[in-house]
Amino acid sequence: MAKIPEQSAAALKYDGKNAPVIVAKGHGQLASDIISLAREHGVLIHEDAELTKLLSQLQLGEQIPKELYLIIAELIAFSYVLQGQFPDNWHNIHQRIDFKT
User: Fold this and answer.
1) Which domain of life does this protein belong to (predicted)?
2) φ, ψ for residue 13 (rounded to 5)?
3) What is the DSSP code (8-state) at residue 63?
4) What pLDDT is recorded for position 87?
């Protein structure tokens, strides 16, 4: 019988200026609680076991390492797009995002 991996979660806070910081992390029931609380407050959730494993190695209050800047920046940018937020100087040059609601 295959062992089911324990659920893990890590939460980041981004202030728009500094590198994102680990504000919560946990395994098992604590991970479930973190995810539930995030959903209750409308926080977008990205599921990636490998990224969570890397983030879980950091201490609470610690900034993400430079090696993770690109992936985290892409996730933050994508979360803004999902919420219909775009930079002031952004022009939908490739016409890949449908603005119709």
Assistant:
1) Bacteria
2) -120, 130
3) B
4) 65
Q: Are strands 21-27 and 8-13 parallel, antiparallel or unpaired?
A: antiparallel
For residue 78, the model assigns a pLDDT of 81
Residue partners of 43: CB distance under 8 A and separation at least 6: 11
Q: Which two tokens stand for residue 86?
A: 């775009």
pTM: 0.73
CA–CA dist 8, 5 (Å, integer): 9
Residue count (the chain): 101
Domains, the chain, ordered by start: 8-65 (3.40.1690.10)
| pLDDT tens for each residue of 62-88 | 999 999 988 998 888 888 777 777 766
